[in-house]
Amino acid sequence: MTANQDGGRWAERAAALYDADYARKYRDRDESLQAVQSNRDLVAWLGGVCDRFDHPLDVLDLGCGTGRYFWGLRKVATLTGLDASGPMLEEARTPIHAERLAGIPIALVKGDLLNHVFAPASFDLVYSIGVLAEHVPLNRSFIERVHGWLKPGGRFAFTTVHPSSPSIARTLPRRLASLAVDALPQALTPALHHRLVGGGTYADERWIATILDGRFAVESLERFQTDVHLHGRCVAVKR
Fold first, then answer.
1. How far apart, in whole angstroms, are the C-alpha atoms of residue 154 and residue 93?
2. CB of 39 within 8 A of CB of 142?
3. CA-to-CA distance for 127 and 112, rounded, in angstroms?
4. Is residue 226 within 8 Å of residue 165, measured between CB atoms?
5. Beta strands across the sheet bearing 150-161
């Protein structure tokens, strides 16, 4: 299957799932999440990524949904939100804490993360929360796309679902594969590790380092837990 075919199928599934009713409920959830510590931590993390820059930022949110994390951004010159669902983008027109975004030009774009085209070197910061290695595979071809969209010295900030997450069924083959990958030298286990992360369906530290190698330098990489998943959280700088 080509990247374009896979991307089209993902976008079709997302558009079918995230209808107007779902989008309204999702937007309502944005309000209640203000009391959830893991969500507050993500907002603070995103603001901290912005603070690593010393100039105004052109920002791209991949899979922006209802604009749940827009308000955590700082130093924003322009903001672009990309999502496959039209109803979710309609909700993003009035995101949570919209008053904090007053005066910032915001473009909401309906499109597929795996196929949409942005001009080269368009953004200082590309970020994605709750999408990659969760709903959309995180792989080398995707990394190449993001690399092209970023300006020199730009950053890519993203979260993933870790393959050790308790939300993933711990079948016997998966447990054995995890033990082998941890015990054996990396040179002996690339194919096994590839299967363990589902080719980017999930992502651990080794997978992230492998697919970023040569294109990005990892600035920070850590695990964090929500009420649903064990996640990875990475900030990488374009080489």
1. 26
2. no
3. 15
4. no
5. 106-110, 76-83, 57-62, 123-128, 150-161, 230-238, 216-225
Residue 55 scores a pLDDT above 90: yes
- pLDDT tier at 5 (50, 70, 90 boundaries)? very low
* pLDDT higher than threshold 90 for residue 32: yes
Separation CA 153–CA 57 (nearest Å) = 12
Q: Tell me which amino acid residue 136 is.
A: V
Of the candidates 226, 228, 222, the residue with the CA atom closest to the CA atom of residue 48: 222
User: What burial class does residue 101 get, using C-beta atoms within 10 Å of its C-beta: 0-12 exposed, 13-18 middle, 19+ buried?
Assistant: middle
User: What is the residue type of 168?
Assistant: I
Phi, psi of 72 (to 5 degrees): -80, -10
Kindly tell me the burial class for residue 90, based on how many C-beta atoms sit within 10 Å of its own C-beta (0-12, 13-18, 19 or more): middle
Which residue(s) pair with 79 in the sheet?
59, 106
Please tell me the class of the 3-238 domain.
alpha beta
**Which pLDDT value is given to residue 6?**
54
Structure tokens at 110: 């309906």
- Condensed to tens digits (0 to 9), the pLDDT of residues 124-171 reads 999 999 999 999 999 999 999 999 999 999 999 999 999 999 999 999
Nearest alpha carbon to residue 115 among 237, 239, 14, 235: 14
Query: Where along the chain do its domains lie?
Result: 3-238
